[in-house]
Each structure stands twice: as structure tokens, then as C-alpha cells.
Amino acid sequence: MENLQLAVSGLANGCIYGLIALGFVLIYKATEQVNFAQGDLMMLGAFIALALGNDSHIGAPFWVACAGAVLAMAALGWSLERVVLRPILGQPQIAAMILTIALGFVLRFVAGAIWGHDPLALETPIAGANFSLGGLILGADEIAAIVVTLLLTGLLFAFFSRTRLGVAMQASSQNQLAAYYMGIPVKRVHGLTWALAGATAAVAGILFASKGSIDPGTGFLGIKAFAAAVIGGFGSLPGALAGGLIVGLIEPFASRYISAGYAQIAPYAVMILVLVVRPHGIFAQVSAKKV
Amino acid sequence: MTLLEVRDATVRFGGLTALEGVSCAVERGEIFAIVGPNGAGKSTLFNLISRFYQPASGDVRFEGESILARSPSDIAALGIARTFQNIELFERSTVLQNLLIGRHTRRRASLPSQIVFAPSVRREEIAHRGAVERIIDFLDLQPHREQTIAGLPYGVRKVVEIGRALAIEPRLILLDEPASGLSVEETGDMRFWIDDIRTRLGVTVLMVEHNMSLVSAVSDRVMVLAEGRVIALGTPAEVRTDRRVVEAYLGSETPAR
């Protein structure tokens, strides 16, 4: 029973890692850029929801605050692509990488300047609610994280495999020049991808903030999610979720059965192990380029 | 009737003039070839027509309308498709998926209806798949349908790229060196396909090609470029005997002593 309890909390955390990892994969799939600010976008999404919804701030109804945060982050993601990423389109990948790392710093400092560096809690209607199932105690926040993540992943998966825009996003990532001549407005597609990644980050942020407090450093969770994306095989949406769940599950068990200190490094140890055994990740889609 | 018209086009890259005052008109249903020595401006002209380059002066008109304000992602919807000298395919996708992306501009269904795969989307998808399968039959690509591009031989990729361009259902197809890198046998097949694209599919063909026997065999008219200018335009037979063409290819005649 104790193991089951650990598994539930691990899954709930893993879902949030998975959602951030989805953001990584979305942008990578469509633009072949790695957005290291994805974790910080999540943090910002959480803060925007908090600023809109908490009674000490604007005090809008919770659902309005959530919708507002998702829309605001979609708009921010779109603008970031437009203003920051587009000018370096066509430059080596390392340029975009460094740019997004810097972007992460900026977002963290901006959040710190607006909301301070002390931990804040998001007020949610489900805070503190618990369900007991057999001997198992399920937090409403944990259930919400799991359900919302599964729905969103399913929706994104359908979007990429079934819709014209989703297929266009995949096409642009494989060959921009060819995509143009298929009638795909590649730059606009990149902007929409970033908007989608921003919206996903906001959802992850709200779910994370429902489970505990947030501060500007919350964005460092992105590093763990990056490990999750790598474990799942960068470029695969189900892989990102699976990688997130693996990382989420490892943590509570490592801290229970090994030690809390080792639990911190466990996700990265697994990432290294996966990279050694299956260099393209568990759900690998990329094949080695021929030369 | 004129389908594509280039009027007095000049393209410069910095101080270099790649095209100077080039004019030509491609008639509907014609196979029109552009030939010339390396650096003559053939690819520049191609990239000008496919809206990759902007001219310093002049105009490009498709079906009577200027397309200079259009971007590369607009021309598929206008009815212009192109292939590339170095083959630009979606490497990690299958032949079928590559051809299906060619249908992008023809898809009409709304985003929500696509996500739930509504009956209207289903009907549309069946139609698109049918169109793509006809192209696969037309180009004999059945054995490679489900294969990933990255694993295909060069000659097959070349054909797949033409198939993808045809999936757009263009009125004009621009072929950039369709026979380069092909074996003698594959070049023979290419000749029949180019002819069939015009005769059976009714698509006007504008191509850049170095292989003169292919050009002579399929083209209605040939335009010869040298150093960015048109030096000859006419039937393959007329062009072959043109004094300036011979000079451009073989160097000017030195008087015999």
C-alpha cells in the first residue's frame, strides 16, 4: 500500500514533468530548436494564474484565471518566436540554445521583480481536497494533474497526427525549404508552435502550483523535464509523457528506498543510462543521418 | 495562350548581375526547357519564378497576374509546383507521407473537425489518398510506397520529388535538372514521364536541364541562357545550330590558319 501511495504521487509529479517535456518536444518537432526556457515559461504561467486568481491580487474566478494564464502564455510564446527566435532562424542550433538559456534567466528575473522571491501559493478550489480509496489517499490536485495531462497529451497527439496544421508543423521541421513549396507558411507555423508550447507550459504551471508553492526558481524544474524528454526520445510526444512519468516515479522510490540525496540525482542517472543503452531515447523516432 | 511570362527581368546579387533583361513566355501545355553553361543564370531564373529571389527590375506573371508580391509558400496555391536540383524531400517520412503533404493546399476541413475526424474530413481524406495513389501508379512508385526517404536510392528520390510536386495538382511544374545524377536507363524513364506529365496530366512543364538529348527529345521550345542573357530561343533543332549557342558552349571560333 505504501508503494502504491508513492506511485500515485510519483505519477502526479511525473505528469507535470511530462507536460514540460511536451513543450520541449513540440518546439523541437516543429523548429528543430531546443527551448531551454520551457521550465521558466511554466513558472511564468503559474505566476500569471496566481496574479489573476488569488484574492490578494486581482481575485478573478479560478477558471477565468486559468484561461487567462493559458491565453497570455500562448501570446507570449508567439511573441517570443516573432521577436527573439525568428531573427536567428537559419543560424546554427547552438545560437538558439544559448538564446533560450538567456531567455530563461530574463523570465526568472522578471518574475522575481514582479512577484518577489518568496514562495507563493495559488488558491484553487481543489486545494486540500482528498479522496480515500481503500487505504489509498488521493489528493484532488494529484488526480487533476494526471487527468489533465492525459487529456492534453491525447489532444496534442491527435493534433499532430491528424490535423493539417499539425502535419505542416512536422513537415517544416523535416525540411523548411520543401515545406514552403508545399504551401506551408513556415514562419507562421513556427509562431503557432511556440504559442502552443506557451499554452502547454501554462497548464503545467497551474497544475504544479496546485500541488505546492511557486517561486521564480520553480523554472529549474525544466532541467528535470529536459532529462524526461531525453529519456523518452526527443521528438516523440508519447515519449515525452512516458519520460516524465519515469522521472516522476523514480524520485519518490529512490528517496524512500535509497536516500533523499540520491533521489535528486536519480533522474539524471537514468537519463545517462538511457543515452548509453538507447542513444535516441526509449521512443526514438529520429534515425541517424547518413553521410 | 501564355501561362507564365517573364518580362525583362534583371536579378543582381550585390555587384553581380545574374540575370539581365530576360524575357520569355511559356505557353499552356508546352514543355519549355532552359539550357546554358554553368553560371548562365538558369537556377536564378528558376528561383525568381518560384519567388525565392526578388528581381531588381522586371516582372513575372502567371496566368496574366504579377506574382512578385507572392512568397514561396503562396505559389503552390496558385498552381505552381517545383522540384530541386539537390532533392528536397521530407527525409524521415515515407513516400506516401511525402506525397500527402503535397495535398496541403487542397485541404479545407476546419481544425476541430480534423481532430475528431468528422465524416466530412473522412471523405476529404479518401479523396486526397485517391489522388496520391493515382500519382503513385502513374510514376510506378508502388514498391516504395511505405519506405522512408532516407533509405531510398537517388533515382527513386528524384521520381518521388516529382510525384510530390504533382500531388499539388499544379498547372505549371518547374523541374530543376530532372535527369542529373540519373543512369541512362533512368533518364529514359524520365523522358517518358515528362512527356506524360504534359500529355496525360495536362501540366505545363518548365525545366532546367543539361542533358541535351533529353531536352531535344521532349521539349517544344528551348531557351539558351549565357552570362545572364537570352542568346537563343526556339525549337530544339533551331537552337542547336544557332551560331551564338555553339559559341557559348564551345567558345568562339578561332579562324583556321
Pick out its properties:
heterodimer, A: 291 residues, mainly alpha, two-stranded antiparallel ribbon, 4% strand, disordered C terminus, B: 257 residues, alpha/beta, 4-stranded antiparallel β-sheet, 10 helices, 10 strands, globular
What would you note in describing this structure?
The complex is a heterodimer of chains A (291) and B (257). Chain A is mainly alpha-helical and 291 residues long. Chain A has one domain (2-218). Chain A has helices at 2-31, 38-53, 62-85, 93-115, 140-162, 164-174, 176-181, 186-211, 221-232, 237-257, 260-277, and strands at 120-121, 130-133, 136-139, 213-214. In chain A, the strands form 2 sheets. Chain A has a two-stranded antiparallel ribbon with strand order 1-4. Chain A is globular, with a radius of gyration of 19 Å. Residues 287-291 of chain A have low confidence and may be disordered. With 257 residues, chain B is of the alpha/beta class. Chain B contains 10 helices and 10 strands. In chain B, the strands form 2 sheets. Chain B has a 6-stranded mixed β-sheet with strand order 6-7-8-3-9-10, sandwiched between helices. A 4-stranded antiparallel β-sheet of chain B has the order 2-1-4-5, with helices on one face.
